[in-house]
Amino acid sequence: MWVDDGSYEIETGLNRWRIYTEETLPDEVKALLSMIHSFPEIKSWPWNIGGTSVAYIAPDERLIEIGWKVTDNLYMLVLERDVLNRMNGA
User: pTM of whole model > 0.90?
Assistant: First the structure.
């Protein structure tokens, strides 16, 4: 998920993105973000994505099935299939 200026862009499949606001963001995603933010950040080494260097924030092992913060704007979320299906309108 990419977060920027109140916009939440979530990739729900290959080349499929959904854009939400704070008001329209699914409750399941809000819950994951709350859990992620309740843990202290663990700073780690920088790594490259497509030539751009970013600081990787390693996940706490308790967050492996929830998600974690990669950068200030990028999150990795672990979403259940039914949540993804609802986000895709299925």
Answer: no
